[in-house]
Design a protein that fits this description.
The chain is mainly alpha-helical and 444 residues long. The protein has a domain of 89 residues. The chain has a two-stranded antiparallel sheet. Helix 1 runs antiparallel to helix 5 and helix 2 packs antiparallel against helix 3. It starts with 25 loop residues before the first strand and ends with a helix.
Length: 444
């Protein structure tokens, strides 16, 4: 570095990748500086020694997995907090129904709902920060496929949509106008809040389900990548014709990494979506025995390396190492195949479900149009409204089932717009009011 000017600060970028570090390598470094005392001689100062430790193949993936699990836990915590907010609102509404006259306790209950909502908003902001950090880290380290990165981007957009000012606005209007509204205005204010509350709940639930699917993809990809890296390390060992202490250490490192990787793989089903758990558990059972067999071979190979007195590697040892490398590569391929099959199966199911919902909605729309025309010609207070109310109730019931299916599909597809779920809730409310109106017009 050039000599600095007085009181000048300098920085130095040390490009560690140029040193070609391996997993578990440790680099010890320190800084030495000299003054410019030309009279009595230059004096040297030295910093304390520092160490850079490079993570093993599985340690980085385990750290990433830990961060993803934190996101899952945060989403579940937000979901529980939202349930608490719903509970407080229901208590307020129950008290309001018992005593329509506004009292201090009702205002206090709404204030508690508002406090809970503010806490949820804060948790959602923190969640977005965590997710953004993971997304950046994955991109910088090229830890995931472009397909998984794209899914991360889609989910990131949805996470930013969880917090909606409409819920805050509806709650404030309800709280500020409490005691000043007539019964009809109060009913509309309650409906407006409950509508926005339902949208908020659906966004949380949908995001949690989508993240579980994304994490399953991420988990399988992490396992596949780790196995591929271990296979590369084993290949490098097998290409060496001489035995050295370093080779024994490397082989022990591979065995240790594989053991850690198997522990991670055994936990995949903990956060997997409920629909995918049977396939995941089946994959775990199939792979567990094969991974155990590879570990046994590694242990046996290490023992042979230690026992051989000649520095020249025995051909049997080399063949066994080549076999281990091939098995690791095969397991990596199996993980990738399992991931592709799960995604393909999910896409097929979702496509079929969407086609069914679309076809059913078209038929339901035609039925609603026909019912609307029939109702227009019926005289007021006619008993015919009883039959029409029954038909409207049937349409409403069918739409609710289709609406549930649509929400379930949206929990599988990140690119599915939240606006569609909002629209379906609006239609549900409209149909519910239509049933009530037809029932009120019953002449009996």
């Amino acid at each position: 570095m050039p000599n600095p000017a007085i009181n000048e600060q300098q920085s130095y970028q040390w490009n560690l990748p140029d040193l070609n570090p391996k997993a578990r390598d440790q680099i010890i470094y320190w800084i030495e500086v000299y003054d410019n005392d030309q009279y009595s001689g230059r004096k040297k100062g030295r910093s304390q020694k520092m160490m850079v430790t490079f993570p093993s193949t599985t340690e980085y993936m385990e750290e990433l997995d830990s961060k993803e699990r934190e996101v899952t836990e945060s989403l579940e915590d937000i979901s529980q907090s939202f349930e608490q907010m719903e509970k407080q609102y229901k208590q307020f509404k129950k008290r309001l129904q018992q005593n329509p006259e506004t009292d201090w306790q009702q205002k206090k209950q709404l204030e508690e709902v508002e406090k809970e909502r503010e806490q949820i908003d804060k948790k959602v902001d923190e969640l977005n920060e965590k997710f953004n950090e993971i997304r950046k880290e994955i991109e910088q380290n090229q830890a995931m496929s472009p397909e998984t990165l794209e899914a991360y981007d889609e989910l990131q957009k949805l996470m930013k949509q969880i917090n909606d000012p409409e819920l805050e606005k509806a709650l404030k209007e309800l709280r500020n106008s409490l005691g000043e509204m007539n019964p009809d205005e109060m009913r509309k204010a309650l409906e407006n809040y409950e509508f926005n509350e339902e949208q908020y709940r659906q966004r949380i639930e949908r995001t949690l389900n989508l993240f579980k699917s994304l994490k399953l993809n991420s988990d399988l990809e992490k396992v596949a990548q780790s196995l591929e890296k271990l296979a590369e390390q084993e290949k490098a060992i097998s290409e060496s014709n001489e035995i050295s202490p370093q080779e024994v250490e490397q082989q022990e490192s591979i065995r240790e990494d594989l053991s850690d990787l198997q522990e991670q793989f055994d936990r995949i089903d903990d956060t997997a979506p409920e629909k995918a758990k049977p396939q995941v558990e089946k994959l775990q059972q199939q792979s567990s025995k094969k991974l155990n067999d590879i570990q046994k071979e590694l242990k046996e190979n290490i023992e042979k390396l230690k026992e051989q007195s000649s520095p020249q590697k025995d051909s049997d040892i080399q063949k066994q190492q080549q076999n281990i490398q091939q098995q690791l590569q095969q397991q990596a391929q199996q993980m990738r195949s399992a991931k592709q099959q799960l995604n393909q199966r999910r896409r097929q199911i979702n496509r079929a479900a969407l086609e069914y919902v679309l076809h059913s909605l078209i038929n339901l729309s035609l039925n609603q149009e026909e019912l609307t025309k029939e109702t227009e010609t019926i005289p007021p207070q006619s008993s015919a409204f009883v039959d029409k109310a029954r038909k409207e109730r049937n349409i409403s019931s069918q739409f609710t089932m289709l609406s549930d299916s649509l929400f379930s599909i949206s929990s599988e597809i990140p690119s599915f717009s939240n606006r569609i779920n909002k629209k379906k809730t609006e239609v549900e409310n409209y149909l519910s009011r239509a049933v009530d109106l037809l029932a009120e017009r019953d002449g009996s």
